[in-house]
Amino acid sequence: MPPKSKQKVSNKSQNAALGQHSGSRSLVKLHRVTLSKSTISSTGLRYAVTFNGETTVMASLTPLCAAARVLRGRGIVGSIELWDSERPFPRMSANIAHAAALTVEEGSKSRPIFNSAIS
User: What are the sequence ranges of the domains in the chain?
Assistant: First the structure.
């Protein structure tokens, strides 16, 4: 039997698989932030968020959205992943610009939902 030939994958196919448009030269940058418990308030547990060794959010009920707003304010674009010390995978991830425009609303009789932060 003849040896199997190796299949070549074109750059265009690789870019399509990565969600890039043809002509795109860079990948979306992924930024990792780390979550830790901060304080307990009357409305619930608040979290601190660390980015590159700096605590960027001191106490938030919505740490992913708050961290995304800090990163967006610094001109950082791409995706954000929220990690903790307990799991071997991110708790949440999102596009920075999208998450920065959101907040979480929760009523006494409803489950938490994402909503626009702009009123």
Answer: 27-116
